[in-house]
Amino acid sequence: MNPSMETGQEASRRSRAKERRLRPAWFLVFWVIMIAAGVTAAYYYSEHMKQSMLQELQAQTTAHLQQVQASYEKQIKELDTKLLELQSKVDSFNELLTFTKDNTSDKTDNSNKLYTQLNEVKNQLDELKNKMDLLK
User: Fold this and answer.
1) DSSP class of residue 106?
2) Whole-number Å distance between alpha carbons of 38 and 99
3) Taking the domains of the chain in order of start, what are their residue ranges?
4) d(CA 69, CA 120)
């Protein structure tokens, strides 16, 4: 055979051998890139899911806190109303105690004593009328 042809055949054999060696290297590089892309995508997806869950949890917590605050304010208003009612009862009871204390005191002339005195005066007047009638 021709030496120039042998060199050409040998060169084509060598290039084929190089191509055969390069194919697995490219295949390996391709898979490494694919795995890295998959890991990166999984990382970003998990971060996205974590952020969305945190936002959802924060929204739920805010809603729950608003409900608790509304309930707390309602209870405070109810207690305030009850406290005002109790205060009015205490004030009226205090007035009654003051009135009773005044009635038991000898220094004051109150309606009960006046009523008793009026009854006594009326009785004395009736007696006087009876005596007057007897004298006539």
Assistant:
1) S
2) 90
3) 3-104, 109-136
4) 66
- What's at 89, amino acid-wise? K
Count of other CB atoms within 10 angstroms of residue 28: 10
- The Cα–Cα gap between 132 and 71 comes to 80
End-to-end alpha carbon distance in the chain? 188
Please tell me the predicted confidence (pLDDT) of residue 108. Answer: 52
pTM, 2 dp: 0.45
95-112 pLDDT per residue, tens = 777 777 766 655 555 566
Helix (H, G, I), strand (E, B) or coil at 35: helix
Q: Reduced to 3 states, what is the DSSP secondary structure of residue 76? A: helix
Cα–Cα distances in angstroms (integers) from residue 112 to residues 83, 90, 116, in the given order: 34, 24, 6
Q: Angle at CA 97, nearest 5°, toward 96 and 99?
A: 65
Q: How many CA atoms lie within 13 A of 2 on its CB side?
A: 4
